[in-house]
Amino acid sequence: MHEPKVADKNTSFWWEAAPVKPLPRQPLPQKLDVLIVGAGYAGLSAGMALAREGRSVAAFDAMNPGEGASSRNGGITSGSIRPDYATITRRFGEEKAIAIEAEGKIAREFLYDFIKTEKLDCDFQLIGRFTGAIGYDQYEKMARSAEALAKRLGIESCAVPHAEQRSYIGTDFYRGGTVRMDIGGLHPAKFHAELLRVALASGLTVHSSTPVISIERDGAGFRVVTSAGTVQARQVLVCTNGYTDGASPFLRRRLVPVRSRIIATEELAPETMARLMPKLMMMGENRELGFYYRPSPDGSRILLGGRDSSRVGDPAAPTLRLRNGLVELFPELEKVRLSHSWFGNVAMNRDMMPRIFEKDGVVYATGFCGSGVVWAPWIGTRAAYKLMGYSERARTAFDFRPPAFIPLYRGNPWFMPAIIQGYRLQDRIALWRSRR
């Protein structure tokens, strides 16, 4: 029996075209209007908005800017919210649920307009997304949801019956699915590099490899200790998400870093790509631990991602699990070589909702739960307007209470492997019970 081969490289495929780099050392400012912790999508978007309004602002990143999830994600502009509409309604009320659903459309449009207006070279294509149904019962529910989405928000969304499935994806694994055309794909590392370029040009200063150690109240402002020295800041914005550390203990007890891993195939023959991904759409499926996958921007490879239950090192098992998932979908790729396998941290919280919140004067823009390509620039920008007191421009359904703390958790997600195994079991049961 063929033994799958572990990938050639364990670094992000996206770094081949857009490697993350340290920035030149900058003089440490003594005082700032706003100090931002984190220079990913959210921190840079906020910093740019603040700098363009004349604020003195600097972002501090513990790594190279973009070295975290901003250059490791799948580059799918989904703007998904993990809880469904009914769950959000039950938890927060129907008014909040309606506002959150509508804001997803606005946030995607904001991103697309930003890419166009700022002339960001990031391989963006508004190509649509297909989501596969595991069984016919699930397909019926998804079809009704697609119809409701089209009616409520005017989004081009439709059901794809099993008989028409192969015009979207070359597999028989699913029992139909849905398509929505307001979702596309981009090159996440190029997007971050371009965002960094325009943010620096706007007047934002970025300090790379300069972790923030502590944030303390100091009169009307804050005393922020960094590895390079101490800065006095009138306001502080924390945008650390899945890489939150001890500098933000309040946030650290509320966000759980979860590994998300992606594999990339070697270049495939054009006729193979045309058969497996005829429309070159973004792809997903309705499982608790569902895969997300897509063609590379040049249409020559397949990239497939999912949750990784490992916590330390870079073991082979998670890569092989994704590879097995790839072959389950596309059996003809059984002997294909993997060029890359890598992981990055997404940030989950107890209600699985992104948000802006304030605690002891510090503003937080965080909790993107695996959908940061859309939510991080949007929420980061709203947080900047909040800091500037622009109440109308800062308006968002995601500005509400902090996420709940997680009992017995202080930054070490010891419980995640068991939770992921539980989800995996649920998926096996759902597949067994599905009417296929």
From TrEMBL:
One of its GO terms (molecular function) is oxidoreductase activity. One of its GO terms (cellular component) is cytoplasm. Residues 33-385 form the FAD dependent oxidoreductase domain. SUPFAM superfamilies: FAD/NAD(P)-binding domain. Keywords: Oxidoreductase. Pfam families: DAO (PF01266). It comes from the Bacteria. InterPro entries: FAD-dep_OxRdtase (IPR006076), FAD/NAD-bd_sf (IPR036188). Gene3D superfamilies: D-Amino Acid Oxidase, subunit A, domain 2 (3.30.9.10), FAD/NAD(P)-binding domain (3.50.50.60). This is FAD-binding oxidoreductase.
